[in-house]
Design goal:
The structure holds two protein chains of two kinds. Chain A is of the alpha+beta class. Chain A contains seven helices and ten strands. A five-stranded antiparallel sheet of chain A has the order 1-2-3-5-4. A three-stranded antiparallel sheet of chain A has the order 6-8-9. Chain A has a two-stranded antiparallel ribbon with strand order 7-10. Chain B is of the alpha/beta class. In chain B, 41% of the residues lie in helices and 19% in strands. Chain B has ten helices and twelve strands. In chain B, the strands form three sheets. In chain B, strands 3-2-1-4-5 form a five-stranded mixed sheet, with helices on both faces. A five-stranded mixed sheet of chain B has the order 8-7-6-11-12, sandwiched between helices. Chain B has a two-stranded antiparallel ribbon with strand order 9-10. In chain B, α4 crosses α5, α6 packs antiparallel against α7 and α7 runs parallel beside α8. The chains are: A alpha+beta, B alpha/beta. The interface between A and B is large, with 46 and 60 residues. The complex binds adenosine-5'-triphosphate (ATP) and magnesium ion. The site of adenosine-5'-triphosphate has 20 residues of chain A, from β3 and β5. The site of magnesium ion has 5 residues of chain A, from loops.
Chain lengths: 302, 352
């Protein structure tokens, strides 16, 4: 199952400068929850960019709508810059206008974790149906599950890293985690300290994006072998509270269980990696237990 | 096949008779009666009084259902009752009645999850096949989607239910609970104009309502202040803020949150249909807002009216009969109730 793309009935007019006849073509890729996501280019025709536009919501009172759009766009821009500086893997910000509601981000290749998992379990169902190949299929699945555990680890490490710099995502789902395939030719800069990395990061966005653009499409098998990139920070906040971090994990856990029931057993690996790689992780995990209890034992009446 | 359904998880006692003529044709409603326990203004319904109300009315309503439909007990295939979630005492009162009737008429007794009852009835009435479901009532706030034989909860209230938030605000204002506190808030909100700033708390597909309630309660204290000089005024116009403005602001804010979390779930699962069930689902402003959102996504909203949105016996009869037809066996031996019963705990045998 893919996200809704073609079914957008209401034609949205983007704000200037994207209305100019000379601006590069905009390709509507996804109608997200609150936004429309276009693939386009910025500055040079070879620099791909994700243009995220938050159109006014007709259902919301206009005053409330303006307040929320502005707050979320600002939150997203601020948090992304902060994450980039502190070494969390997120797309860089190329530009934004919170009055008209757009933000231009570095284009991330690859697919969402949600799509990756759907792909794997679709294949699995398909294979299960073919009884003749059952044995081979099963072995194949075990192999895939091993790889998936690796993916779960990466998710746990990424979320731990995010929390360690004092940011809560606010909307952690598998739709908001992307898996960017690793490029063979890619050069990294090992040994950067945080400050150096920060400066380099800002200057690097364009160059990196250029390199990404030149990279070839990955083979499907390689795809589980990539970097987890966190996206969609509209509901993010900067916090030091363990409670907020625990709610972040709780939201992810439930999104995972409800969206990928077949993969639910793999989720523990996210928490394992989170606890092992993030110093204060154990405290947050204990808090998570409390948040879970509250959720399950919550009285159904007020 | 015909089923009798008994519902009494909160202050509504509902008895219904439904027929499933064949697997392919739509269900037929033979009777759908309800009697509501209404508490005085400023007060909520207490378990003890509510249970007494249900005990006093249950036999009368069952008899009336039979009369209305001209059926005899021998026409009925099974008795369905609400196992939970809900308030303990009222649930038990109705379960005892259901058990008694089942023994008296020698019928299988089928336990039903209240939330699943709402969802199945909503689907049957509206014809929505596989929608994202927003279930909003006095006790529940859930965003649900179906997958692999379960109704999975994607989002929910992190603290109090949205209906509870509205009901408690009605108590703060000491307005009538007849026919329902939420209904009276809706009428007041129609005359409100000013949008006051209230906390807006959404976390992914979850939402929180207790902060808003505290904030609007505090504003109400100032709007209702005895001395006029202390009353809250609009900063720009200098006019007095009204109770209507408060109701309007509360609704606009909490409904925007509900529509937002529903939209997030729709984007996440890739669905364009949305079904609203539960008592708060009667609210026309909520339906309108949800409709606007669904339209922009190229889809549509499905909602039912008061007969099916508000707790009723027919939905219990319907869900019970679906379970019975799919092979769920008589549960007399463990016909217990449970105050907490998660929607996703039920195996939905009757769907692929
Ligand atoms: N930088 C990017 N590069 C490539 N694809 C992206 C990028 N950002 C987002 N996407 C794709 O677009 C989808 C929607 O984006 P995003 O999650 O940011 O918006 P949204 O869910 O509508 O946001 P919000 O919840 O803040 O309203 C993502 O799930 C992903 O598939
Ligand atoms: Mg998103």
């Amino acid at each position: 199952m893919t996200l809704t793309t073609a079914a957008v009935t209401t034609a949205h007019t983007l704000p200037p400068p994207f209305t100019s006849p000379t601006s590069p073509p905009l390709d509507l890729r996804v109608q997200g929850a609150e936004s429309l996501l276009y693939k386009t280019t910025l500055l040079t025709p070879s620099l791909p960019c994700a243009l995220k536009y938050r159109p006014p919501k007709a259902y919301r009172h206009a005053t409330l709508d303006r307040r929320l759009t502005k707050a979320r766009l600002l939150a997203e821009a601020r948090v992304l810059v902060r994450c980039r500086r502190d070494g969390v893997t997120v797309p860089g910000v190329l530009g934004a206008d919170w009055e008209t509601g757009w933000i231009a981000l570095e284009w991330v290749e690859g697919r969402t974790v949600r799509e990756v998992l759907d792909g794997v379990y679709h294949v699995r169902e398909h294979r299960d149906a073919q009884s003749a190949e059952e044995k081979e299929g099963k072995e194949g699945i075990e192999g895939i599950e091993k790889q998936l555990l690796g993916l779960m680890r990466k998710v746990g490490v990424a979320v731990g890293k995010l929390h360690s710099v004092g940011v809560c995502h606010g909307d952690l789902t598998t739709s908001n985690l992307m898996l960017r395939p690793r490029k063979k030719k890619r050069t990294t800069h090992p040994g950067h300290d945080a400050a150096e990395a920060a400066e380099a990061a800002e200057a690097d966005i364009a160059m990196e994006a250029l390199r990404d653009a030149q990279a070839q499409e990955p083979e499907p098998e390689q795809e589980l072998d990539g970097d987890v990139v966190l996206i969609d920070f509209g509901l993010a906040n900067q916090t030091v509270q363990d409670e907020d971090k625990a709610v972040d994990l709780y939201v992810l856990e439930r999104a995972f269980g409800s969206t990928h029931p077949q993969a639910e057993h793999l989720f523990q690996e996210v928490l394992n990696a989170y606890g092992e790689n993030y110093k204060a992780g154990q405290t947050v995990l204990r808090k998570l237990d409390q948040v879970r209890m509250r959720g399950r034992k919550k009285s159904m009446l007020g | 096949m015909i089923a009798l359904g008994l519902e009494g998880s909160a202050n509504k006692l509902g008895i219904g008779l439904i027929s499933h003529p064949s697997p392919t044709s739509p269900p037929i409603i033979l009777a759908n009666l309800r009697h509501t326990y209404i508490s005085p203004p400023g007060a909520g319904f207490l378990p003890k009084d509510t249970a007494a109300h249900h005990r006093a009315w249950v036999i009368r309503l069952i008899k009336r259902c039979l009369q209305q439909s001209s059926l005899r007990p021998s026409d009925i295939a099974c008795i369905a009752f609400t196992k939970g979630p809900g308030m303990g005492a009222p649930l038990t009162a109705v379960a005892v009645a259901a058990r008694t009737v089942a023994l008296l008429w020698d019928k299988p007794l089928i336990p039903v999850n209240h939330c699943v009852g709402h969802i199945e009835m909503g689907r049957a009435i509206t014809g929505a096949e596989n929608p994202v479901v927003l279930y909003v009532s006095g006790g529940n706030t859930q965003v649900i989607a179906y997958s692999c034989q379960r109704y999975r909860i994607f989002g929910e209230a992190l603290d109090i239910a949205v209906g509870n938030c509205l009901d408690r605000f009605a108590r703060t204002l000491a307005i009538s609970n007849d026919p329902a506190p939420g209904y009276n808030i809706e009428q007041l909100a129609k005359r409100g104009k000013r949008l006051l700033d209230l906390p807006y708390t959404v976390k992914g597909m979850d939402a929180s309502f207790s902060g808003i309630l505290a904030a609007v309660d505090a504003l109400a204290g100032r709007v209702l202040a005895e001395e006029e000089s202390k009353r809250l005024r609009d900063e720009e116009s200098g006019e007095l803020v009204t109770v209507e403005d408060l109701c309007f602001s509360l609704q606009e804010t909490v409904f925007a949150m509900l529509v937002e979390i529903t939209e997030r779930a729709m984007a996440h699962v890739g669905s364009q249909q949305v079904l609203i069930v539960g008592g708060v689902g009667c609210n026309e402003r909520l339906q309108e807002m949800m409709g606007l959102m669904a339209k922009e996504r190229g889809g549509s909203v499905y909602a039912t009216d008061e007969r099916f949105c508000i707790d009723n016996g027919i939905m219990i009869a319907h869900a019970g009969l679906l379970a019975f037809e799919s092979g769920v066996k008589d549960g007399l031996d463990d016909s217990t109730c449970t105050q907490r019963f998660r929607t996703d705990a039920v195996h939905i045998k009757w769907r692929d």
